[in-house]
TrEMBL record:
PANTHER family (UniProt xref): GTPASE DER
Keywords (A to Z) from UniProt: GTP-binding, Nucleotide-binding, Repeat, Ribosome biogenesis
Stretches assigned to the EngA-type G domain: 4-169, 178-353
Function: GTPase that plays an essential role in the late steps of ribosome biogenesis.
Transmembrane is among the record's keywords: no
Any GO MF annotation of the entry: GTP binding
Keyword Iron-sulfur among UniProt keywords: no
Self-association and partners: Associates with the 50S ribosomal subunit.
Protein name: GTPase Der
Length: 438
């Protein structure tokens, strides 16, 4: 299902993060325990009165060329929100009152014509309500006073959000379809690949209903499986976007990754893996998405029998956390191996959804411990009582142990490798969670 996007914009310290934390759904604690998965996300799912939406914390984004100037950074935040969001929450500080920059940002937001809710935060009590009046001068309509800390008026705020996003019923997306995000830097061949991939298929191109944005998802069927290609960076509408899109292309790619089941990272064979590729691949990995790496423009490479192995080695070294991703050497131009992509996506999706029974897992755990005894600290050995699969997409396993502190990183790696050797799980990250005896 497409979820409307609500962006939160505002100067540092006005209380965006606090507000954000008060509104977004609590993360399931099981996810927080995953070692190594602590990075800040910028997208979060939220829900109010049965309506789901996604919130984006534009304050959490570092803009590369914003030269640490707060106003420039604010302007970028605002532009990003204008370009991407369905509703913008503009947060100001009711304790400090209006600041000079508030007006300038308000002007940028107002001229966009996007739905904007002016949120005066830090109105912690009824007596402070009078502080909201001066903000009428920003020309953004009625301000709403809230206290993110005391959770005051947040319900009214969310009601207003729903007034904008809840009016148009969002058409059900094809839930069972495999959602694909083709990601990669400009000019690696994403559009060409899309056309080559879809060349043989009967496709339906659909605007996402109920939104003001120009995202176009492509639906098609291939041998009985339904696919949806998520539009990234206006791929199918080149040249239509008039504001500096480059700056936001990464953000858009991340959004597509959030919505996808399988991310297809497209590389240019003549260029290899760039920093931006690593960033996006890292995001897909941490979000637990399936991944496939396509090395496109393979026609441009002089090859002998070792060339692809050499390329694979380089990719494995650069994207060290993503050893599980299949690599496809392809050419959108000559269509070499393009026909394999849909099957590969389907395969990875199946791997993500695979379930292993607890009895089979426990056999694996006993065998693994025989080959390689668990680590110990100060004479206390780690004991693994049993393991069970808690969820799919990504496959997530819970290990019940005597004391999680005794686990060693390398032993987790060993267990992950055993799982992969035995069951495959190709193209998908695996999460291992430790539970100790209380
Ligand atoms: P951000 O930089 O905009 O994300 O702001 P933060 O959420 O980090 O908040 C900045 C400071 O304002 C912190 O010290 C918060 O505790 C405080 N703060 C946030 N919301 C409120 C509020 O509703 N009332 C009061 N009094 N303080 C708040
Ligand atoms: P995008 O920006 O990632 O969507 O890239 P495009 O699909 O627009 O491709 C960028 C350029 O690379 C165009 O000139 C394409 O014709 C060219 N191109 C794309 N795929 C291939 C390929 O497999 N081989 C060769 N030689 N050129 C390609």
């Amino acid at each position: 299902m497409y979820k409307p996007l609500v962006a939160v914009v505002g100067r540092p310290n006005v209380g965006k993060s606090t507000l954000f934390n008060a509104i977004v759904k609590k993360r399931i604690s099981i996810v927080e325990d995953i070692p190594g998965v602590t990075r800040d996300r910028i997208y979060f799912d939220a829900e109010w009165l049965g309506h789901e939406f996604t919130m984006i914390d534009t304050g959490g984004i570092e803009f590369i060329d914003s030269d640490s100037n707060i106003f420039t950074s604010m302007r970028y935040q605002a532009e990003l929100a204008i370009h991407e969001a369905d509703v913008i929450l503009y947060v100001v500080d009711g304790k400090m009152g209006i600041q000079p920059q508030d007006q300038e940002i308000a002007n940028i937001l107002r001229s966009s014509g996007k739905p904007i809710i002016l949120v005066v935060n830090k109105i912690d009590s009824i007596e402070q309500e009078v502080n909201i009046y001066e903000f009428y001068s920003l020309g953004l309509g009625d301000p709403i006073g809230v206290s993110a800390v005391n959770l005051m008026n947040l319900g009214d705020l969310l009601d207003q959000v729903l007034e904008y996003i809840g009016k148009t019923p969002v058409e059900e997306d094809a839930e069972d379809a495999i959602h694909i995000a083709l990601i990669g830097r400009p000019n690696v061949g994403k559009s060409s690949l899309t056309n080559a991939l879809l060349g043989q298929e009967r496709v339906i191109v659909s605007n996402i209903p109920g939104t003001t944005r120009d995202s176009i998802d492509t639906h098609w069927q291939h041998e009985g499986t339904e696919f949806v290609l998520i539009d990234t960076a206006g791929m199918r509408r080149k040249g239509k976007i008039d504001i500096p899109v480059e700056r936001y292309s990464v953000i858009r790619a991340l959004r597509a990754v959030d919505r996808c089941d399988v991310a297809v990272l497209v590389l240019d064979a003549t260029e290899g893996v760039t920093e931006q590729d690593k960033k996006i691949a890292g995001y897909a990995h941490e979000a637990g998405k399936g991944s496939i790496i396509v090395v496109n423009k393979w026609d441009l490479i002089d090859k002998d029998s070792k060339t692809s192995d050499k390329f694979s080695e380089d990719i494995r070294r650069e994207l060290v956390f993503m050893q599980y991703a299949p690599i496809l050497y392809a050419s959108a131009l000559t269509k070499q191996r393009i026909h394999r992509l849909a099957d590969l996506v389907k395969f990875v999706s199946e791997q993500q959804n695979m379930r292993v029974s607890t009895s089979v897992l426990n056999e694996l755990i006993s065998d693994a411990q025989l080959i390689n005894p668990p680590p110990a600290k100060n004479g206390h050995p780690l004991r693994i009582y049993y393991m069970t699969q808690a969820s799919v997409k990504p496959p997530t396993f819970v290990l019940f142990v005597n004391d999680p502190q005794l686990m060693h990183f390398s032993y987790l790696r060993f267990l992950e490798n055993k799982l992969r050797e035995t069951f495959g799980f190709e193209g998908t990250p695996i999460h291992l969670i430790l539970r100790g005896k209380k």
